[in-house]
Amino acid sequence: MKYGRVYNFSAGPAMMPEEVLEEIASEMMNYRGSGMCVMEMSHRSKVFQQIIDEAQADLRKLMNIPDNYKVLFIQGGGTLQFSMVPMNLMKNGVACYVETGAWSKKAIAEAKKVGEVKIVASSADKNFSYVPDCSDLDIPDNADYVYICENETINGTTYHKLPNTKGHVLVSDQSSMFLSRPCNVSDYGLIWGGVQKNVGPAGMSIVIIREDLLRDDLGDLPVYMNYKTHADKDSLYNTPNCWAIYCCGKVFKYLLKQGGLEAMNQRNEEKAKILYDFLDASKFFTGSVRPEDRSLMNVPFVSPSKEQDAEVVAATKAAGFDNLKGHKSVGGLRASIYNAMPKEGVQALVDFLKKYEAENA
Ligand SMILES: *Cc1c(COP(=O)(O)O)cnc(C)c1O
């Protein structure tokens, strides 16, 4: 790796494409003749307006976002969306949540502060190692929406088929899979993602919301918490996270250049297959997730014991593979292999683990 960089398997903040970082570095001291860095730039300037406009246009192109959806850049990271979603969408005060792991549990806890939450399916019985059947959920007629965490970053599961919401609005937390594969936006009422997993720097979420879900009757809500505030002002109600918007815009252009989301999906499938094929063949390591629900982005696995897990983590770190320790709530190891992780990184990790197994098992 150039610059002495390591293969960073962190779940987030995570790797960004090297050529994007290089381009950002080249514009650091003087962005395109403006005489300043984007970090120093007024969000009301013409030059920043162009940055945010292009970022939105490129994201729309990448995801093929229909015109009746708004794209919002909102600060506060992913966690703020756990509150903003129910505060804005719980019109009748009832929402359905699918409980698939750590992040959907956090979303549920916040929604309960706003209204009634019905857990319509859960995989808690098997430590969130699978995605429950969502083909025939018991959804009350007055439910405002059905909420899923489409890729559980900590548990390593993903939906390969969306729930049947029986005509109700689908809300999805796509934080750790955002832009990893094609997405049919019109299947959803609202999609959101914290950008530090698969796109750019931390501290911002992108919200894609169908226009009819924006409301005029939320005057009691703190102004920043209302999606309409951001929609009406094109994400420039107050000073946005200019730096994150700029970096994300670079990544959108990079993804378009790579061939868009179809191409990313193909690459991500190839990358994940290298790792899963190894885990399936290994007698020492075991994947933690039911094969049909495996994430292409976050791959949790275990060795025969906690002690050996810790030894493997230490050995990988010494060999230049960083951040492979599993989340404290699950243990074991976890390799996050987002868009920006090169295939060579996954192959190098598998080669290392193979050798480790041969020498230590
Ligand atoms: C990381 C993550 C979040 C929370 O993001 P923060 O920016 O740390 O608040 C929410 N949902 C999922 C699926 C995540 O991976």
Verbal overview:
The chain has 361 residues and is of the alpha/beta class. The protein folds into 2 domains: 20-258, Type I PLP-dependent aspartate aminotransferase-like (Major domain) (Aspartate Aminotransferase, domain 2, 3-Layer(aba) Sandwich), CATH 3.40.640; 260-360, Alpha-Beta Complex (Aspartate Aminotransferase, domain 1). It is 35% helix and 16% strand. The chain contains 9 helices and 14 strands. It has helices at residues 18-26, 46-63, 77-89, 102-112, 227-232, 242-257, 260-281, 306-318, 343-360; strands at residues 7-8, 69-75, 94-99, 116-122, 146-149, 151-152, 157-158, 170-173, 190-194, 204-210, 286-287, 298-302, 321-322, 333-336. It has a 7-stranded mixed beta sheet with strand order 2-10-9-8-5-3-4. A hairpin with a 4-residue loop joins β6 (151-152) and β7. The longest helix has 22 residues, at 260-281. The chain starts with 6 loop residues before the first strand and ends with a helix. Pyridoxal-5'-phosphate (PLP) binds next to α3.
Furnish the topology, listing elements before pairings.
Blueprint: E1 7-8, H1 18-26, H2 46-63, E2 69-75, H3 77-89, E3 94-99, H4 102-112, E4 116-122, E5 146-149, E6 151-152, E7 157-158, E8 170-173, E9 190-194, E10 204-210, H5 227-232, H6 242-257, H7 260-281, E11 286-287, E12 298-302, H8 306-318, E13 321-322, E14 333-336, H9 343-360
Parallel strand pairs: 1-13, 3-4, 3-5, 5-8, 8-9
Antiparallel strand pairs: 2-10, 6-7, 9-10, 11-12, 12-14
The structure holds pyridoxal-5'-phosphate.
